[in-house]
């Protein structure tokens, strides 16, 4: 076996009490010939899950007529309905008498309902008296893969790509299992290639690859997933031989028209494009003096008749900017570049905004763009790939971080304008919006490098479906579907996951300062390592204090990009949330935090604590030996060893650095190297 099935392992559930409802799957949507691939897949999943988990060999029956359906009294009944409380992808599950009814408006809804039922049984939950209705909170629930055509993955920590190898597309059983995995948590769209579109990837939109992509898109469609591609803004030059890729040039428009027509001839259900432009060396409309709206709208207009969507990233900044000017601030860039374009994007354009203003640091404030744009579709982009959060060597369960972002009140409206309200479309009555995660997958046996990192992939899907689920609940669901149902296992893994982000933060970056990592690979400490700062350091530490002054009064002015009362809250050192203190302020080492500790003592203490807590997590994990499969235990133990080494290195380097800068001794007299 080249890979495991993660949370779709369908481990046996002993002594499950509700078997009597589950002996037959009955589909009431018409005759067999009319059944869609999606329904066939739903039946397949239910059949396999019940067989493996409960040892039930389920029968299947397809009913041809409504009359016949009315006679059914027992089994799992999949039924299309026109229930107006359900959205297109929603479903209800009701257990009545001897039957469990899964009802939905569409085949996709039936698939999601089937996975929901499986999830409940896999957790050992009773389905007796079940009566639930579920509608997804977000319409777009996407993965972004940063996979390159040579098989490498940018910021990939789980092996190589399972989509590409040697400039070819891979079509094998793993693609089906990938689709099953992500559909099971409600993900409905995926971009399979890197936003940095290099060489062969530019050609994905040509005859060379479109045939195979069609096959892949069909597999995905069977699980309700749309295929998207990252496109190269300079494709008209690189593929078409045109002298420019100016979005207002007629030949460029004509070129894209022909290209997109061809894409849809091959793949009528193609989702659309994701574009990274004018950022980190990627081409874009700035070259021609055009705006990002002009760039995005050109493609959106052409995609529109096909039902296509154009997703345009707001991760636009000038990595060559002169940091010596104190007012220069990369954190300002996304807002500065896009706020003036609010309302100028076509309705099938979605702006994709990273959760924070910088770049997926351990701790950042929420991007002010969410509270700023009012007439623009938005997708929240988070990073499941642990680029700055431990490379999937260190455990870092990211759902609590994403929850904080979703729950953040932007004050864009008087009420109901949290990030979750905005990206779900509730705040401004929008349809084209949602959430995307940079995927943490690769062709490793366990998909995510660290077995525990699968919780982030699982959790992203669940959270994108229902932003109101708690981090605790998501962790619990994942654990129960992944590990044996032993209290000790469940409690220990739950505790490890829930502590992991705060622990990682403790031994790495204090109070929102970020970027003290080794340049380029972004793992391990390097206090002065920020690669785009050629003239100084990111943290701006001197002998008196550290932190970046982002106030309007004296600093970069970034704090002023927020709506009130947030702008004033961040501006004022007394009201600025402490976990972000150094993000917004230059703070003296002797500044007293709310705990009564000085800033420097806080840095020392948290770094010592971080290492101690990793040691405790390892102790807990050791005790699971024999209670979970050996291979899983060994793999995670090996990762924990790397994490401990990393944490010690962080502790020592950070503490030593700031001890040398400040000259202030540790109050507790611990050894600082
Ligand atoms: C795909 C960061 C990463 C890059 C990534 C970029 C982006 O800068 O380090 O690897 O490029 O973000 O999100 O486009």
From TrEMBL:
- Could you say which enzyme class this protein belongs to? hydrolase
Protein name, entry field: Xylan alpha-1,2-glucuronidase
Q: What is the lineage of its organism?
A: Bacteria, Bacillati, Bacillota, Clostridia, Lachnospirales
Key word Hydrolase present: yes
Q: Which GO terms describe its biological process?
A: xylan catabolic process
> Which SUPFAM superfamilies does the UniProt record give?
(Trans)glycosidases, beta-N-acetylhexosaminidase-like domain
How does the record describe its quaternary structure?
Homodimer.
Q: Where is the Glycosyl hydrolase family 67 C-terminal domain?
A: 448-670
Please list the residues that make up the active site.
280 (proton donor), 359 (proton acceptor), 387 (proton acceptor)
What molecular function terms (GO) are annotated for this protein?
alpha-glucuronidase activity; xylan alpha-1,2-glucuronosidase activity
Q: Which domain of life is it from?
A: Bacteria
- Write down the chemical reaction(s) this protein catalyses: Hydrolysis of (1->2)-alpha-D-(4-O-methyl)glucuronosyl links in the main chain of hardwood xylans
InterPro entries in the record, alphabetically?
A-glucoronidase_C_sf (IPR037054), GH (IPR017853), Glyco_hydro_67_aGlcAse (IPR011395), Glyco_hydro_67_aGlcAse_N (IPR005154), Glyco_hydro_67_C (IPR011099), Glyco_hydro_67_cat (IPR011100), Hex-like_dom2 (IPR029018)
Glycosyl hydrolase family 67 catalytic domain ranges (all copies):
121-447
Q: Which residues form the Alpha glucuronidase N-terminal domain?
A: 6-117
According to its UniProt entry, this protein's organism is Herbinix luporum
Question: Does the UniProt entry include the keyword Hydrolase?
Answer: yes
**Catalytic activity, EC:** 3.2.1.131
Supply the gene name. aguA
Q: Which family does it belong to?
A: Belongs to the glycosyl hydrolase 67 family.
